Amino acid sequence: QITLKESGPTLVKPTQTLTLTCTFSGFSLSTSGVGVGWIRQPPGKALEWLALIYWDDDKRYSPSLKSRLTITKDTSKNQVVLTMTNMDPVDTATYYCARNAMVRGVMPFDYWGQGTLVTVSS
Amino acid sequence: SSELTQDPAVSVALGQTVRITCQGDSLRSYYASWYQQKPGQAPVLVIYGKNNRPSGIPDRFSGSSSGNTASLTITGAQAEDEADYYCNSRDSSGNHLFGGGTKLTVL
User: Which of A4, A29, A57, A63 is the one with CA 20 to 30 A from A78?
Assistant: First the structure.
């Protein structure tokens, strides 16, 4: 059974750095073709892809947020960490982590965490 | 451009067929994946690739693609299909994209 769960602060102040951890089970991030990504969703708005890290430590970032994002993995702990610097109220959103795996030549986000709501406010 | 465009809202009568579309240049090279999201819940993958359904997804959900347009079709829509639907693909740089979402209303 594959599960993912996000953890981190629910409230951060403007200009602070957000650190979110995705803890997963049921798969390994050392398996070829597997990645873990972060996607966020502001209240009432659409999904926005943020970052993705692959089994071989290849990393991809949203071009519009690249300067603020860092994604890392700890394979031994089954964790992926996302940091986002210089938080602003517009970054208030539910943050999801999701597995990204090669299936029939496609790489969908096939398993998702429940999401964690992060509010940016002073 | 690296964008995926969806109609904001679509409605369908109970039991009828509805098509939700997604347009973008990346779809000429890469297949779309489709996600269903109900209020207060995480997205769920319903279609990926040419026309593949994860285990547990009803066969009334199907996918297709032509040129720069991907489509999600629900044949015989049910009340429980009322949700937001998002398309997702990647671009040539390996970056992912999500469409703006389509709110499906089942009448």
Answer: A63
